[in-house]
Amino acid sequence: MTATTDVSANQPVLIDVSALALLFETLREQGYTVVGPTVRDGAVVTAVLDSADQLPYGVGVETEAGRYRLRDRADRAAFAHSAGPQSWKNVLLPARTRRWSADRSPDGTMVVSGPDEPRRYALLGVRACDLAAIGVLDRVLAGGRHTDPVYAGRRDGNLIIAVECTEPGATCFCASMGTGPQCGAGFDLAMTELVDDDGHRFLVRAGTPAGAGILAALPGRPAGPASVGQARDAVAAAAARMGRTMPAVNLPGLLAANRQSPHWDDVASRCLTCGNCTMVCPTCFCTSTEDVTDLTGDHAERWQRWASCFDLDFSYLHGGSVRTSGQARYRQWISHKLGTWHDQFGMSGCVGCGRCIAWCPAGIDLTQEVDALAAAAAVTS
Amino acid sequence: MTTLAVWKFASCDGCQLSLLDCEDELLAVAGRVEIAHFLEATRAVEPGPYDVSLVEGSITTPEDAERIRHVREMSRVLVTLGACATAGGVQALRNFADIDEFRSVVYARPDYVSTLATSTPIAAHVDVDYELHGCPIDRRQLLDLITSLLLGRRPDLPGHSVCFECKRRGSVCVVVAHGTPCLGPVTRAGCGAICPAYQRGCFGCFGPAETPNAAAQAGLLRATGMAEDDVVRAYRTYNAADPTFIELSRVMAGPAPGAGPGGTGQEET
Ligand code: SF4
Ligand code: SF4
Ligand code: SF4
Ligand code: SF4
């Protein structure tokens, strides 16, 4: 039995896969609800997990534009899968959540209560692109003058356990967005999964005192230079195996200059305006509200739910919707993600996770659309 | 008190049953409105006019074409319930066939049956204030609409695709993860995306969403292995007389998923 390790020096530590059970126990003892990857209905989804047994051991995925399949792996790796249909947005900014409820008492007074008390979440299996996406949401929903109370409440007190990618998917392009696959900052713990003849283990480093505290409770051993090098190489190899690349052009400039491009007709002929891309995107933050009352009107609730710029209602102003064509709506989505987001928030709205490519039922790939837009611009200029 | 009337035309009663199915809320509804005409629930009938009429079923006989005008005259707000009333229902399959042949095959004494050659939605005959879609309707939408009418607030009746609700519900897309055909991208939301939650493709029972893309959806359906006949049938089931679905049922080719820029999916000729 290995002794618990002193990580005060912030040295990377090796833990065996069996230590994940203790990790779950430790998190629970500290009052965290653990959310992590698990298999459901033919995909790796994020869900509240009770035990490490629910992790997707031995499950790999194959992705392509508009296609996602699970596959059996030769090993028992638990984090060797690229992005599924959900992201940490599903936890931090739920698809549907109550903003407030109000009750009118018989004497006419009103009692109003806020959002439901959130739990303290430990997010397990956060990728580098996901860390970047949480950073984007922090900026948008908690970093300005108007804080989203639901997001802020759920984000508060998170513990983030990142797992670096060693198995990027065919739809991944975080390397070209500068967000991954190695995890730089924004985590409490960062792990790299290693599976080979020497066993199934994780190289773990702490990013915060909270992370160090958790790590200290796990049976580990100091990682030697060989393991550290092996982990570094695995992540570097992943960077070289990204299935997609975002063209290295001035994206905001390209999009702003080509608002009348004939290419929008081309993409609109393929786009279903179904909204899936915005729903799966880990940074799309748009919501709308829905009011619910009982029949008497004495009890009212306001619910917040995900909205999408692919909905006609989204751009409804007095008298009608502003963006009615598929052209206008696809252009809004990609222009916001890659262009105007910079003006608004000083960063890109895309972190290169590839979810919108894989989970688009029409298989529309924004990296290809950028390519085609640039090509069309080159022809006309 | 607000008076409510429920009317039946050519239909299966399933939508009216959705109202009776609001078990928990039914007493509250009965306490807030006077149910003046609802033969499925009671034989007692109050004379009109009525504040709100809920109309189930399509128009398939000359008598019903008359009767719906009368209902409209007696109603302040008229709401159609379900695929039959809003889009002709499954019985609108006759619109694509020979009614005399149907009649002679189905009935022992066809001469007893007086019917129109078509099944048409209520809106083809009279003005409609609100339409609830689905086969059957979603009872939460029905309750929300009744509540909205009582309190004078805006009902929540989205026009976007089922995919929005499917993702909000956290379901795994059956098209992307299983290669199963699904009408969700062209179908109006409102059901809560029930079918994909049980790993079935959407059957389109809520009728068309606000801006369906016929060719892209054809490309998707064909790529999942559907034959042309199956595509036609998929659209001509619950909402057979819906003009948009009729249009979609005539488009057989489109870009396959992942075709990429310039990919039209049309055969080279
Ligand atoms: S790009 Fe794809 S996912 Fe997004 S709205 Fe169009 S078809 Fe749907
Ligand atoms: S735009 Fe697409 S690739 Fe970029 S972050 Fe959103 S889902 Fe991921
Ligand atoms: S791309 Fe559309 S849904 Fe996403 S954040 Fe921008 S406006 Fe909102
Ligand atoms: S399963 Fe159907 S409804 Fe759900 S996202 Fe996929 S295409 Fe849309």
Secondary-structure topology with pairs:
The complex is a heterodimer of chains A (381) and B (269).
Chain A lengths: L12 E4 L2 H11 L3 E8 L2 E6 L10 E6 L2 E6 L16 H4 L3 E9 L5 E4 L7 E6 L1 H15 L6 H7 L3 E5 L10 H4 L11 E8 L2 E8 L2 H8 L3 E3 L2 H16 L10 H7 L5 H8 L5 H5 L6 E7 L5 E8 L9 E2 L2 E2 L4 H20 L9 H4 L7 H15 L1
Parallel strand pairs in A: 2-8, 8-9, 9-10
Antiparallel strand pairs in A: 1-11, 1-12, 2-3, 4-5, 6-7, 6-14, 10-11, 13-14, 15-16
Helix pairs in contact in A: 8-11, 9-11
Chain B lengths: L1 E7 L5 H7 L2 H10 E6 L11 E7 L5 H13 E7 H6 L11 H8 L23 E3 L6 H13 L10 H8 L4 H5 L15 H4 L16 H10 L4 H8 L7 H6 L21
Parallel strand pairs in B: 1-2, 1-3, 3-4, 4-5
The complex binds iron/sulfur cluster (4 copies).
One iron/sulfur cluster sits at the interface of chains B and A.
InterPro entries (chain A): 4Fe4S_Fe-S-bd (IPR017896), 4Fe4S_Fe_S_CS (IPR017900)
Organism (chain A): Paractinoplanes ovalisporus
Keywords (chain A): Iron, Iron-sulfur, Metal-binding
Written overview of the protein:
- Chain A: This is 4Fe-4S dicluster domain-containing protein.
- Chain A: InterPro entries: 4Fe4S_Fe-S-bd, 4Fe4S_Fe_S_CS.
- Chain A: Keywords: Iron, Iron-sulfur, Metal-binding.
- Chain A: It comes from Paractinoplanes ovalisporus.
- Chain A: Pfam families: Fer4_22.
- The complex is a heterodimer of chains A (about 375) and B (about 270).
- With about 375 residues, chain A is of the alpha+beta class.
- Chain A folds into 2 domains: about 220 residues, no CATH class; about 130 residues, no CATH class.
- The termini of chain A are far apart.
- Chain A contains 13 helices and 16 strands.
- In chain A, helix 8 packs across helix 11 and helix 9 crosses helix 11.
- An 8-stranded mixed beta sheet of chain A has the order 3-2-8-9-10-11-1-12, with helices on both faces. In chain A, strands 7-6-14-13 form a 4-stranded antiparallel beta sheet, with no helix packed on it. A two-stranded antiparallel ribbon of chain A has the order 4-5.
- Helix content of chain A is about 35%, strand content about 25%.
- Chain B is an alpha/beta fold and about 270 residues long.
- Chain B has 2 domains: about 150 residues, NADH:ubiquinone oxidoreductase-like, 20kDa subunit (Rossmann fold); about 90 residues, no CATH class.
- A 5-stranded parallel beta sheet of chain B has the order 2-1-3-4-5.
- The C terminus of chain B is likely disordered.
- Bound molecules: iron/sulfur cluster (4 copies).
- One iron/sulfur cluster (SF4) sits at the interface of chains B and A.
